[in-house]
Specification:
Helix content is about 40%, strand content about 20%. The protein is an alpha/beta fold and about 325 residues long. The chain folds into 2 domains: about 10-165, Alpha-Beta Complex (inorganic pyrophosphatase (n-terminal core)), CATH 3.90.1640; about 170-330, DHHA2 domain (Diaminopimelate Epimerase, Chain A, domain 1, Roll), CATH 3.10.310. α2 runs antiparallel to α3, α7 crosses α8 (about 215-230) and α9 (about 265-280) packs across α11 (about 320-330). The protein is globular, with a radius of gyration of 21 Å. The protein starts with a helix and ends with a helix.
């Protein structure tokens, strides 16, 4: 990665797995903006590798500039490293030099998110040629060095999946919410002077799990509201993605909280009307093996119009698809 940074210059920043800074520069210069918590510091983006929808933030002349659809951003990163010669043998058709054991271990590390993001390359709605190509390249490197774990491909996937699912056990509720968190600022045409901050928390455990971890539904809601207040959010979203222990099916839940009675609540209503059928939102019920306090959880977390919780039956839609719908609901007001 250091070679990738050097190839792009030492003074700028490279975005990986996102393609727009939260706040754009006041002078409107493309590719320039600031981060939350550092509003007075402008950063210049000089490279970007991302698989989300292109928000038009990056200047077209930067390099690398690879913003396209893929199941995993790691697949595009492998491609970008190969394209600038930072990782020999990472382009299709390359006759790679012999792979050292250390390089094979790096390849195995790069392979892990590709397998997780694409459900071991079985998620037909996510897998793209970028993913299969990166998988083949990395797998070849691993096999060249004879790294033992590569011999049992499915076992490796199972191992990293279980590790990911259990990685939250030792964290606090606040740390779980912040573990896979993204934030955006949107402005509605009817309230141009009132930008709304939207926070999106993703986790690989169920709502029931984090409620129990917090000490109950109200305790969880209090912690979630505190988390949102610290970040000055108008809307906070919690999306879960987990495999039910009772049915062995992959499940998603969606919790959306509007934290004021004005624009945020209106945006939540707009989101429901525009996206409920698209996402297959249905009345929430527990889908894991712990069905205690279901009614209490529903009464606490589903309180129209400011809080809604659903089962998301279209499990193919991740944050990559849901976040733009929520952002669009704000912008449409």
């Amino acid at each position: 990665m250091s070679r990738l940074a050097r190839s792009c210059g030492a003074c700028g920043r490279i975005l990986v797995d996102w393609n727009s800074l939260p706040s754009r520069a006041a002078d409107g210069q493309q590719g320039k903006g600031s981060l939350d918590g550092l509003p007075n510091v402008d950063f210049r983006v000089i490279g970007c590798v991302d698989h989300h929808a292109n928000e038009g933030f990056c200047a077209p002349e930067i390099s690398p500039l690879l913003i396209t659809t893929s199941g995993s951003c790691a697949s595009l990163l492998v491609q970008a490293l190969g394209s600038i010669g930072a990782w020999p043998g990472c382009q299709e058709g390359d006759d790679a030099l012999s792979t050292t054991r250390e390089e094979a271990q790096v390849a195995q590390l790069a392979l892990a998110p590709i397998l997780i993001d694409t459900a071991n390359l079985t998620a037909e709605d996510k897998v793209t040629p970028h993913d299969t190509s990166a998988h083949d390249i990395l797998h070849r490197k691993i096999n060249q060095a004879g790294v033992q774990a590569s011999a049992k491909h499915d076992d490796f996937y199972t191992q990293i999946l279980e590790t990911k699912q259990n990685s939250l056990d030792l964290l606090t509720v606040e740390e779980v919410l912040d573990r896979d968190y993204k934030q955006w600022t949107e402005t509605s045409s009817s309230h141009p002077s009132k930008p709304l901050n939207i926070g999106f928390c993703s986790m690989v455990k169920s709502i029931s799990w984090i409620v129990e971890k917090a000490g109950g539904p109200q305790a969880f809601l209090d912690k979630l509201c505190t988390f949102a207040a610290q970040r000055e959010l108008g809307i906070v979203v919690v999306m879960t993605a987990f495999t039910s222990k009772t049915s062995d099916k992959f499940c998603r839940e969606l919790l959306v909280c509007a934290l004021d009675d004005g624009l945020a609540t209106d945006a939540l209503k707009s989101f429901v009307s525009q996206a409920a059928s698209q996402l297959g939102l249905e009345e929430w019920s527990a889908r894991d093996d712990d069905e205690r306090d279901i009614l209490t959880i529903k009464r606490t977390l589903d309180n129209e119009p400011s809080r809604r919780i659903w089962l998301q039956t279209d499990v193919t839609k991740s944050r990559k698809q849901v976040a733009p719908l929520i952002r669009g609901a704000v912008a449409s007001l």
